[in-house]
Write a structure and sequence with these properties.
2 domains; Arc Repressor Mutant, subunit A; alpha/beta; Rossmann fold
Length: 218
């Protein structure tokens, strides 16, 4: 049996001590840091050159901030999964990060084990949002009773089922088996959900599911 492939990662953060600490911790978990950068321009160049599986990037980067960097990486390096590491938990930053191309959003105040979960999820093409972040967003929406919560009424029962399973991290094939549908039908439901809710990727679908109460935060 062949050995499992090491997940290669570039770490982009302007705090050197933070980069060094994260590198030590990740290497203990068998995750390879193939390069790190202190600003957005260096980060873009490194990812283009090294073609890692993942890039971990801070929102507040000098020269080219994390949101702008994510937009460029999504266009120029689509093979690299993007995880945003940030101290911000408010809705605006999360939405901007997800729309820019990040499929992982990890709060820096979380336990290190949460970053490992995010890395494993994103390396498999799955979305991840820190529970502390999704809980805060959900709480805000419940208090205000505005925004995405009002869109729940436009979904059919079947669309709600599909959305819930997407939020649980199920693949199209798994959803098809669970709901006795074809994979093609599930793909159409996923596409229809994004169009109807004006969302752009799986990470935004997961966040919507949590905010609307269709799925619980992890």
């Amino acid at each position: 049996m062949g050995e499992s492939k090491t997940i290669t990662t570039v770490l982009i953060d302007d705090h050197k001590m933070f980069r060094q600490g994260i590198q030590l911790l990740l290497e203990r978990e068998g995750i390879g840091i193939v390069g790190h950068a202190a600003n957005g321009h260096e980060g873009l160049s490194l990812v283009e050159q090294l073609r890692p599986n993942l890039a971990l990037l801070d929102v507040n980067l000098p020269l080219l901030n994390g949101i702008e960097l994510a937009l460029k990486l999504r266009k120029e390096c689509p093979w690299t999964g993007l995880i945003m590491l940030t101290a911000y938990r408010n809705h605006d930053y999360v939405v901007r990060a997800l729309r820019a191309g990040a499929i992982g959003y990890v709060w820096k105040g979380a336990d290190f084990s949460e970053l490992i979960i995010a890395i494993n999820a994103v390396s498999q093409g799955q979305a991840f949002i820190s529970p502390a972040v999704s809980n805060e967003i959900l709480s805000s929406y419940l208090k205000n009773e505005t925004g995405l919560l009002t869109k729940i009424d436009v979904l059919t029962p079947r669309q709600r089922q599909v959305l819930q399973l997407i939020a649980e991290g199920r693949s199209n094939k798994e959803i098809a088996v669970l709901l006795s549908l074809s994979v093609k039908c599930v793909e159409k439901h996923r596409s229809d959900l994004m169009k109807r809710l004006d969302l752009h990727n799986t990470a935004e679908l997961v966040m919507y599911a949590v905010e609307s109460g269709i799925a619980r935060a992890a």
